[in-house]
Structure formats: C-alpha cells, structure tokens
DNA sequence: GATGAATGAGCCTTCATTCAT
DNA sequence: GATGAATGAAGGCTCATTCAT
C-alpha cells in the first residue's frame, strides 16, 4: 500500500516537473532555460529534479513523448477507412478538430514540438519528424482508400498530397496555439482546409 | 585601387565566413556550434571571425537576412495581379518553383531558417515569422485580386487560405531541402500544390 | 538550526574567499589576478566563487566596502568635538593610531585601497575618494571646533588643512603597510604628524 | 641632412604618440585603453605604434620616465642648502610651486603617475616609489642642513618628516590636477603647507 | 527522499602583438 | 615606412550534473 501511495507520489512529482518544464521551456526556450528555472517554478531544489529525470534532455524527451502520444491518438481513434467523400470530409474535420484542440488547450506545446524540438539535436528532430511522417502515412492511407473506392481522384502523388494536408493541419495548429483564435476561428481554419482538400482531391 | 581590392577581399572573407557558418550551423545546430568551429572549417584563427562579424549572433543574423532577402525576391519579382485562373496558376507555379530552387541549391538554409532560427531568441523567430507573414500577405493579395476579378470563389477567408498555401509551399521547400528530391519530384510537389489550390479555390 | 549552520557556513565561505582575494589581488594586482587564482588559493573550483559573489568585480567591491567601513569606524568612534589643544592632540593620536593599526594588521589592504582601487574603474576610485573626502570633512569639522574655541588659529583654510592632515595620516598608513615598521616606528610616525599639525595649527 | 630630418620626424612621431597615449591612458585608464585607441586618436594605423615603441607597456614607461624626469628637475634646480628658516621657507615654496605647475599644465599626468602607474606592475610602481623616495631624500637633506645650522629643531625623525612633507606636496598636486583650482587656490595650498612645515619644524 | 553546495567543461570574446603587403 | 589583417593566449562566466548531508 505504501508502495502504491509512493508510486502515485512519484508519478505526481514527475507530472509536476513536466508541467513546470513545459512552462519554462516554452517561455524561455530549451537552451535558455535552466534546470534551476524548472525547480524554482516548483519551489523545489534543483537537485531533486534529477531524482525524477536523468537529465535536462530527458525531461524534454518526456514532454515530447507525451505530446506525440497524444497526437498519435488522433489518428489511432479513427476508423481505418471511409466509404464516401462526405465520410472522408467528416473524418478530416474530426482529425483537424482533435489536433487543434490539443494545442488550443495547451498552446505552449506548439512551441515545444514545432520550434524547440527542432533545434535540440538530431534525435529530437527525428522524433517529431517521424511522428509527422507517420501521421502523413495515415493520411496517405486514407487517401489510397478513397482512390481505391473511387471517391478521390487517382492521378495524385498520394504521399505528397498527404504531406501537404498534414502541413496545412499543422499550420492551423501553430496559428491557433500562437494566436488568440477563438472557437469560430477554429471552425474557419477547418473549413478552409476542407475546401482545399476536397476541392483539390475529389474525383471529377 | 588598393581600397577596392581590399573591399573585395573583405567581402570575400565575409562571404567565406558566412558559408562556413551555414555549414557549421546547419550541421551542428546554432547552439552546439562554436565560433571556433567556423574558424576551423576555414582554417583561420577564431579571433579573425570577430574582425568581420560582431559576434556569433551577428553571423547568424547575416545568414538569415541574406536568405530572407533572397526569399523576398520571389514575390517582389511577381506582377501584383493576374487576370485569369490560368494566369494565377502560372504565377503560383513560378513562385513555388522559385522558392524551391533556393533551397534546392543550398538545402542547409532550410534548417537554418525553419529550425535553428526558431529557437535562438525572440528576435530571430520574429524575423522569420515576419517574412512568412509578409509572404502570406502577398498571397492573400493575389487572392483578393482573383476574387475581385471573379476567377476565385468569394466565400473564403483570404488570410487563412493564403497562410495555408504558404504552409504548403514551405512544406514542399523543407522536404526538398531535407530529402534528395530531384527535378521530377519538384515538378510533382508543384503539381500537387496547384491541384489543392486551384481545386480548392476556383470559382464554380 | 540547519539554516543557522548553513548561514554560518556561507558567511565563512564568503569570508574565506574574501581573504584569498585580498591575498591574490594584493600580490598580483586586480587586473593580473584571475578568479581562478582565488579559487586555486582556496583549493576550490572556480565556479564555486560565483556562488558567493556575482563576479570578480563584486569580490573587489566587498573587500573595499569592508575596509572602508572599518576605516569609517575610526572617526565615528570619536567625540565630535574637543575642548583644548591637548584634547585635540590626543584625538589626533587616537585617530592616527587606529588607522595605522588597521593596516598594520593587514598590510595587503593598503595596496588594495590605495593602489588597485584607483585603477579599476571610475566607481571604485570614487568610492575611495569619497571615503577620503568624508574623513577629511570630519577632520575639518574638528578644526573648525578648535578655531571656534580659540585653541587653533583662525587664519587657515580649514578644508585644505584637513586634507593635508589626512594625506599625512594616509601616507604614514601606506608606509607602515608597505614597510616593516614596528611599534616604535608607529609611535614616531604619530609623533611627527602631531608635530606638524600642532606646530602648524596652534594659535599663538 | 635627410637623416637629421628623419630623426626629427621620428622624434615628433614618438612625441605625438606619447601625447595621445597620455590622453587615452588618463581618460580610460591603462588597462581599459587599447593600443588601437591611441592610434585612432592620432589617425594612424595601430601597427605603426609598434615602429616607435616596443609595446604598450613601453609607451607607458616613456610617459612615466618623461614625467619623473620633469619632476626630478624640481629639486635638481634647487641649491643644496639654505641658511635660514626664511630661506628654507622660500625654497619650500619654490619646490611646491614648481611641482604644482607641472600638473596644473597637464593634469592628466596626475592620474597616470599617481593612480595608473601604481597598478600596472611591480616595476612601474617601484619607479614612482623610487622617485618619491629620492624626492623625500632631498627634502630630508634640506632638513638635516637646517638642523645642522640650527634653524630647524633637532628632535625629529628627518626621514619621516621629509616623507610627510612630500606627501603633503603630492596631495596638493593631485588636488590641483583633479580639481579646477585656480592660481589663488594654488597659493593657498602652498601657504597651508608652509604653515604646517614651518610651524611644525622650526626651532624654538 | 530532498537538497543545494561544489564542480569544471566549455564557450564567447578581447586585444596586444606580429608581419606580409 | 605605414598599415591593418590575422592570430591565439587568456580569462570571465554559465550551468548541467553529482553527491554528501
């Protein structure tokens, strides 16, 4: 029992550190932020941090992993295929909405994933790139399904198209995280993306 | 005469340092790269660097400024308006091609502009963001023209649409810089973007 | 309790660093001395120094402030006025003796206050100059009292006379700190100063 | 002939550099001043300086040597002995006046001799100290003469008294150089010093 | 378990000096 | 003779990480 309580406490501490680190990394940037800044934000000794994370880099990893897992959920919750253009449109809307919601809830994550992670080291960048690639692969998969079923046009480079759609979604995500876009704006971002995708991809 | 020769030499040295810095910054990242690395790459003393640039940050600024100027040329060389959907399509193609060419010629610049610059400090990030915003404004302007002339649909958020187009172009640019895409791939990227834009925006 | 012990330790460390810095600054000079020299003298890492003082200059400031405070005590412990030439003579003796004792105990301080401080920057110099000025003002004040009470001659420039007395005391101080003067020498220095002052200032 | 002209030119250049160095060293301080600052002040290349002086330290040496020589003149022009208290008083006045004039003409020298020189290295400090000692020895010599001839009291430490007189003169010199004392002030400084010395030393 | 004192690798930057032109 | 480009020693300072308490 004590063990369980202890485990919960540990988990809580790890979580608290992560939250503080998100705040610190997103406001000062990974390189300018010090481990001591994170500890200060929590009112704990900075040595304590090292009892929960191997090092500064490890904290960032944890943030990133958690965020990427959250983002991965977006596609994993989707049915692997749709049966009509309208179905696909709705799926696209759900995915975009879901993705935007993550960053609307915690806009600081956008800076961490899209800016800081890209300049720490090869591994961090690869980690994000890999997620984006996987996301794009899902998208490509949806499109292949649409082509196979005939509701999307065949003469496209599915991979590239998927990457462009992904880029549009990510762009909207960044803008929503960065700016002060409200719910109506989010609807518009989705609407504009849908226009491009449906208009650009639909068969005939 | 001596003065002219000297000025040329100085310009050459500044250029050499910039090139070495591009290599070093893009391969190790701004933060991990030292001024000494740049000097070593050139086989000169690191003190010499400071005769040509105020400090490490100043070198990065120069790289960024040069690159953004090059990118700004892309839209500044374009006519401010087009008269038909086909004209617009061609303009879009030119812009995308031009932009991709810059990074195809020196792919290292992509990492510098899109990754490193975002994590150095507020100023560097703002500098890139501002360029992107201006670029998107040009795009928005082209679209307003199309709406006014009736060859683009009126029911769009011009600003958002412009930003999404910009995001697609930048995405293609990054991919071309990062990957080993050849001329054919570049054609395809353009083609896919055109499909999205024309399909998604055209009237009727 | 732990806190108190900690505070004591911190105070001790600050004191140790100050002592080492006095040694290093007085033997090599402020400019030639490195923070690493101070750390080496203590057998500690140089980074440790920065936990106790903001920077090299701050260490010097602390030494100087401490010394000037000690010197300020000399006059602040004196009664503001005396009633006879003999009283005044005795006061002068006390002041000179007190001042000389400070530097006899730690001769290295003389170099720091009178030589190094003068060449670090405007602020350090002003700091010493200000102290000297205040000291001279006290002296001038004592003299005005003597003139008012009639035991010192009226036809003098009190400010200048005070500055000259101060200069004599400081000169003796420097000589005592620099040389290997013993107790007897100190008595003589005092005696000679008294001769000048009493002989030069006494009324009638 | 060409040689003579050349020698004159060289001498002129050395002199110009010295003057510029006096300005630069006295305004920024020896350590903060760069060789380039001196060259800039003259509008010449900083490499040129090294054709006239071995190094930065050598320039300072030259300034100091020149100044000390000038100061040495003050006592060397004096008769080795005087025959009455009044003669001695007049000699003292001449010496003080002469010394003050040097620094009134070029107040920048005060900072160089009394402040900067003390913190460069052992040699520079020794150089100034040696001059002061020699100056004090002359003064002591004058006093021994006075004691021998009976117009100065015998019960004094001639060396210390001489050093105190020297200190007073140097103090007045510094004040005159630092402040904006006019001719009348200079007279007063002399007057106050005389009062101390004559009052403090005269026999009976 | 928590703490924060200690550490030193590492990096930017300055500037006196040299020397090829 | 004059120049200023090049150099690299030198040093101040930061901060991630360790570990004794």
Automatic annotation (TrEMBL), chains A, B, C, D:
SUPFAM superfamilies associated with the record: Homeodomain-like, Tetracyclin repressor-like, C-terminal domain
Transmembrane segments: none
InterPro entries referenced in this protein's UniProt entry, alphabetically: Homeodomain-like_sf, HTH-type_TetR-like_transc_reg, HTH_TetR, Tet_transcr_reg_TetR-rel_C_sf, Tscrpt_reg_YsiA_C
UniProtKB keywords: DNA-binding, Transcription, Transcription regulation
Domain of life: Bacteria
Domain HTH tetR-type: residue ranges: 11-71
UniProt cross-references to Gene3D superfamilies, sorted A to Z: Homeodomain-like, Tetracycline Repressor, domain 2
Coiled-coil regions listed: none
DNA-binding region boundaries: 34-53
Name of the protein in question: TetR/AcrR family transcriptional regulator
Organism expressing this protein natively: Thalassolituus marinus
